[in-house]
Amino acid sequence: MNNNQQYALITGATSGIGYELAKLFAQDHYNLVIVARNEQELEQTAAEFRQQYGVTVETIAQDLFRPEAPFAVYEAVKAKGIQVDVLVNNAGQGQYGEFIETDINRELEIIQLNIGAYVVLTKKFLQEMVARNEGKILQVSSIGGELPGPLQSVYHGTKAFVTSFTEAIREETKETNVTITALLPGVTDTDFFNKADMTEAKLVKEGHRADPASVAKDGYEALMAGKDKVVSGFMNKVQVAISNVIPDNLVAANLHQQAKPSEK
C-alpha cells in the first residue's frame, strides 16, 4: 500500500503509545503531522521518522491543556494546506490521589486535554471527512473508562466520556465511509504514571505493564480493519468482561485496593 499522499495527525506523538502509533503510520508510508508541547522533542521525533522511513513530517507545537490550542492545531493544518486522512487523538494525562485532596486546576486541565482537545479535533476533522466521504479516526481511550477508578476519579471519568462520545458519533456517521475506532489500553509502560505521580500505586509497581508498541499495534490493526473498539491485552479483556457482571461498588472497591500505594 502506498500512502505517500496521505497524512495522519497524531497528538502526544513524541512518547509512549502516540510515538509507537506514529512509527506504524510512518512504516506504512503515511506522511505525518505530529503534535506535542515540547518543540525540541517534536523536532527530534520528526527527524528520526524522516530519516528512517522517508516520509514527510510536519510538527505543530501546542499545549493541549489550553482550550484554544486544538483550534490552533486545526488552523495550522489548514495553513499548511494538508488534508488529514487519519486523526489519532492520543494525548492524555491523569492525576493520582483522593479527589478531596487533589488540585482542581490540574484536574480542569486534564479534562481540557482528555476531553476538550478530543472533541474539538474530532469535530473539525470529522466534518471534513464526512464531506468527502472518507477518513479514519482513532480515539485512544482506556479500560479506565469502563471501570470506576478511585484515586484516579477524574481520569477514569474522562475516558468514560471518550468511549461514550466515540460510540455516539460512530452511530451518527455509520452511513458514510468514515470509520471511528476506540482503543482501550490498560496499564501501559509509558511516562503517564510519572506525570500522574502514580508510580507507587500497587497496580503500577507490582502489576504487569503492557509494552506501548504492542498496544499501538492492536490499535493500528483495529483502525485499519475499520473496527469499532479494541481492548488491548487479554487480561484487560477479562477485567472489563468481569466488571460488566459484578456490581459497580465491588468493582470500585477492588480497583481502590489495586490503586493504593504499594507496601513493597
TrEMBL record:
Belongs to the short-chain dehydrogenases/reductases (SDR) family. Keywords: Oxidoreductase. This is Short-chain dehydrogenase. InterPro entries: NAD(P)-bd_dom_sf, SDR_fam. It holds the Pfam family adh_short.
